[in-house]
User: Fold this.
Amino acid sequence: MQRFNTMERATHWAMAISFCVLAVSGLVMLFGKHVLLPLFGYSLFATVAVVCKNVHNFIGPLFILSVSCSSCCSSRTTCGRSHRCAVDTQGRRIADGEHVPSHRFNFGEKTWFWLGVVGLSSLVGVSGLVLNFPNFEQGGRSCRLRTSCTLSVVCW
Amino acid sequence: MQIANIVHLVGGLLVMTLSLAHIYIGSIGMEGALDGMKTGYVDETWAKEHHELWYDEAMRSQSAEPRAGCIDAGCGPRLNGGEMMKRLIVIAAGVVLSAGAWAKLPALNEEQKAAAAEKKAKADEATKKGNEQLAAAQDQVAAMRYIEQMKAKGVTVTPTPIAPPAAAVAAVPAPAPAAAAAAVPRRSRLEREK
Assistant:
């Protein structure tokens, strides 16, 4: 039986691949100086770091796009009527060690979706955009943030 | 900006950690989960074991209307025509409204354009001034350091005052004399300690 349609799978894998690329390049930039530099030496590490930086900058928007697509597509199904009782009853019953029959998405999947994808990933995306464009008047940041919030609420 | 940096790092590390758990469960932790995402279809036994309510509903709706795809059962009750129409109207209204707002935005008159140009010029000037001040401060620090280093080697360097560019005379004090002035009391203090 069908579980995910083509759109959901396409956004999932776009998100997955771009996430892996971003994670690796981000880790190289964050810890590479202490971990890779002694291994690689200066000239090789410099090349690797520059490539990582550019890859990070160019894949980032793709990740943001796929996260917003996936949030818009899946939020309706992840927030079905079973979600209303998910937090208060299901959580408690899972804590008691019971097996709870779940709907299309179980408690863990919903938590991962809302916390990891919608919450943290969009937080990282927005803060990445702020870091990418420091020359915009950042005084207007709250205004833009409000706009994007409104936009996502409208989409949803 | 600084806050965004911290948020980006901490959030990134957190989501990386969580994604490791997600990848584990999705690949080797739960048999059959990866096929669902690869092909879009799952085994019926798998669905019954892991998502019983979803499976039950899919089966029920399948027997009720045999032509309907199972996926609709997962997405909640099927929307009837009226409901769908209402949603479409709301979306269309939203699009029209936002298009109106969008069309209004770029209509700048001459006055606003002039104001924007002036603002930009001002900002450019401020940036340039800031850069000049930064450069002057860096020069000063470098000069002081150089004098210290040379003194450590036993060479006394008397900074030759560099004539600043004529335009900046009033705005930026010449860096070299300031460095010399800063260096002199230090030397006398050292001598006192001796």
